[in-house]
Amino acid sequence: MAEQEDIHVSAKEADFQNAKAYMLSTVNQNGINVYDHMCKIITKIISEKPENAVDAFEDISKALKKSLFKPQFDTVQDKPVVPKAYQIAETQKKLFRKAEDDEITPPEGEEEVLTPLTNLMENAFYFEEAGVGLSREEMFRIYLALRQLVDIYPLQKVRFWGKVLGTNADYYVAEVEFREGEDTEEETYIEPNPNLGAKPPMDEATNLENLEDPLPKPDWKAPVVIPHEEKGYGVNKFTYFATSQLGEDWTRLPCVTPAQIDGARRIKKLFTGDLDAPVLSYPPYPGTEKSYLRAQIARITASTNISPINFYMFDEEEEEPEEDAARDHYIENPEFEGVTARDLVDPSNANWVHHVQYLLPQGRCTWFNPAAQRGEEEMDEEEDEEEREEPDEPEPESGPALLTPISEDNEIDGASPWTLKLSSTRIGQYAMAVVKSNLWPGAVTIGFDKKFENVYIGNGIKYSVENYSPVPTPPAMSEYPTGPEVTEADDPTVEEEAALKANEAEGAEGEEAAEEEEEEDDED
């Protein structure tokens, strides 16, 4: 009997083990088997002891399955959209960390190093009082970003030039001046192709002049390429840096050429926020958006950077320039006593002057004679047998001299190019003079006593009285000079040809008769 009972128990244990193995082997897509799932359900029932465990059994099973469910596909909740403010904070985090490290008090006995950076937060307060500018938080971030330039480059002066608004991103622009002799970076210029339209080189076998019937020569000549002004002079006197995101590296803008300034005057194009983006326009622009931004900066600076009268003066010890040259250098007047805000908003506009050189239509601050260069090029070429005609001497371009009052600026359709007002009419004692440019909307200057500041916040487009219309396409150029030796004549009709032959025959008969008469006269 005992042996039968042992055999019976062993058979039940074997059945249990087989059932357990089966429950462990049945696994769903999520890797859950029946045995573990039943153990969790029983454990949850024993621990929570619900009132009606039989009815809650299915709910408990569904809740456990739901807690272990992991979808195999991506959903919006798996990849949440990172807010733009968070991205900006991550980018600008290093600015604040760098500022905290620099704010350590220097050891005793060591003097504070003077920074070339202007007090931007003080200027932000003044512009806020005038009702222009950016928020204090943004101006503080700009101040921290400008400190990066001071740490990287040997600068003598750093100024926040302004903010240029774009369609996808905005540009923050800094105007800097390097210490003398410490700017070793070479500048690259994008010049137009001077050989555009020139005759291709040909060997002796294909030289058109050796043909029996040579083709006429075109009299078109490629225009003279106006050379750019060197770095540190004229329109390239200052260096500019730009960035579309505070906290990222600043990008140095290239020097500008006359061709780029001339191209910027012919188009009206909003900025995209990408310095390497192509400028899609007509006429085609010679460069990318980086060059276009630099050209607009040069135009805005030359037209809107002003200062109180007598704040700057010409150096008396400096040699007088030549007759055709204009002064391009000035110094701060140590005896400047300041101008009150009420005098600065005088309707005569006589208390503000331009302290940036005038930008000539040629695209330079100093005029270049293209006829002289063309004459040198023609002297190098082989001279023809006939004497060459001397080119007409062009009329030299000129403009207002440096430190000229803004009262001499041209009007805009009968209206003044400047708007002057006080920042507050309630408390005039502490008010500032606010000068806004109507030619370049967004250019603002504030001034009071011995202080003034310039800033530009706009889209970089110049105001025009008329609606903008693209430049028309130029007329087709004549390939060769027209004349009887070049122009092809129409073939004569049959009647015209018969009449021509009859006339020739009559002429021949008349000549024979005349010859016979002459012979008879000779015989007599």
Write the layout of secondary structure elements.
Layout: H1 2-25, H2 34-48, H3 53-67, H4 84-102, H5 120-129, H6 136-152, E1 155-164, E2 171-178, E3 239-243, E4 251-252, H7 258-266, H8 289-304, E5 306-308, E6 312-313, E7 331-332, H9 341-344, E8 352-354, H10 370-380, E9 418-422, E10 433-437, E11 443-448, E12 451-458, H11 494-523
Parallel strand pairs: 1-12
Antiparallel strand pairs: 1-2, 2-3, 3-4, 5-8, 6-7, 9-10, 10-11, 11-12
Q: Your description of this structure?
A:
Among the domains are: 57 residues, no CATH class; 296 residues, no CATH class. 32% of the residues lie in helices and 11% in strands. The protein is flat, with a radius of gyration of 42 Å. The chain is an alpha+beta fold and 524 residues long. The chain has an eight-stranded mixed β-sheet with strand order 4-3-2-1-12-11-10-9, sandwiched between helices.
Mean pLDDT: 80
Distance between the termini: 185 Å
- The geometry reads as flat
Strands across the major sheet, in which order? 4-3-2-1-12-11-10-9
- pLDDT < 50 stretches: 194-198
Q: What's the helix-strand series?
A: HHHHHHEEEEHHEEEHEHEEEEH
- The oligomeric status of these chains comes to single chain
Which structural class do the helices and strands define? alpha+beta
Tally of alpha and pi helices: 11
Number of distinct beta strands: 12
Query: What percent of residues adopt helix (DSSP H or I)?
Result: 25-40%
What about the largest sheet?
A: 8 strands, mixed
